[in-house]
Design brief:
alpha+beta; Ribonuclease iii, N-terminal Endonuclease Domain, Chain A; Double Stranded RNA Binding Domain; 3 domains; 11 helices; about 10% strand
């Protein structure tokens, strides 16, 4: 047997113990396999003392998050950008972001698995990817107003955030889930959702239900199988693979430091080509892919469909 099959079976067995016996049963099984896992969570010890009320609006943040902090200084750490390092705040949000990223991924995975028992692993993966990503987190930061509480001292970031908020307000009125928004969100907007999740997780002594009541509601509306739309780049690849279209390798170029992406697809003898210039390669690739998908739909009736 190939090693991946053995690994897949081990992961499936861990999942079986988790769903039938809970976390303790899964951890016991992992330890029996020789994957030693610590059973108890060590209480988090603060390494610096500050007066959080001098730096952030505690009551306003707790209202948005629907959570009351035992240690409000965690809010300061969770909202401190790397450009805002003061002697009394020696650490930015990155450690809490690391923790929150993993915990939110875990929570959404469990929720989707329990809510949709009949769907395929591939569709589960697509639902999770659509629910747990930087764009979704960034949109939540803007809609909830959490972005207003970021502690930073960067003029460049200030301009980026201001431009993003204006652009978002212009485009979001016609979009329920935000899939159609061609916006390059500053990463800090997504980071603070993860860091605040980490802060709540630590402050609640690792209580996942606290996150379900605080952070998860900020991510609504949660994507469902009916509302799921694949990212344009992924959907274009899937359609080309399904219908045996020839998709060329993206051609990248730069003009005055600004990237451009040219995509070309040959479908039934017809060439579909589009070039997009955007602030970064990812956004340019996304817009170019969407343009080609639109051309395919208009030129080949009945052939363009959502690929699941």
């Amino acid at each position: 047997m190939k090693s991946k099959r053995i690994a897949d079976v081990v992961e499936a067995l861990i999942g079986a113990f988790l769903t039938t016996g809970g976390e303790v049963a899964a951890l016991l099984f992992m330890n029996w396999l020789g994957i030693e896992v610590e059973f108890s969570c060590i209480k988090y010890q603060r390494i610096f003392n500050i007066d959080p009320y001098k730096h952030v609006n505690i009551s306003g943040l707790q209202s948005i998050l629907n959570y009351s902090f035992k240690d409000p200084s965690l809010l300061v750490e969770a909202l401190t950008h790397g450009s805002y390092m003061l002697p009394e705040i020696p650490r930015c949000y990155q450690r809490l972001e690391f923790l929150g990223d993993a915990v939110l991924d875990h929570l959404i995975t469990i929720q989707l698995y329990a809510k949709y028992p009949g769907i395929t692993p591939g569709l589960l993966t697509d639902l999770r990817s659509a629910s747990v990503n930087n764009d979704r987190y960034a949109q939540s930061s803007i809609r909830s107003g959490l972005y207003k509480h970021i502690l930073h001292a960067s003029q460049v970031l200030h301009k980026q955030l201001s431009a993003t908020i204006i652009r978002f307000e212009e485009l979001s009125s016609n979009s329920t889930f935000g899939w159609e928004l061609d916006i390059n969100f500053p990463k800090v907007l997504a980071d603070i959702i993860e860091s605040l999740a980490g802060a709540i997780f630590v402050d609640s002594e690792y209580n996942k239900h606290a996150l379900v009541n605080s952070i998860v509601p900020l991510l609504e509306p949660i994507v469902t199988p009916e509302t799921l739309k694949l990212p344009p780049v992924r959907e274009l690849h899937d359609i080309c693979q399904k219908h045996h279209y020839n998709m060329g390798k993206p051609v990248k170029s730069f003009e005055n430091g600004i990237p451009s992406i040219t995509l070309e697809v040959e479908a039934n003898g017809t060439i579909f080509k589009h070039t997009c210039t955007a602030p970064d390669n990812t956004l340019a690739n996304k817009i170019a892919s969407r343009a080609i998908l639109k051309s395919l739909k208009e030129s080949i009736p009945g052939l363009y469909e959502k690929v699941k």
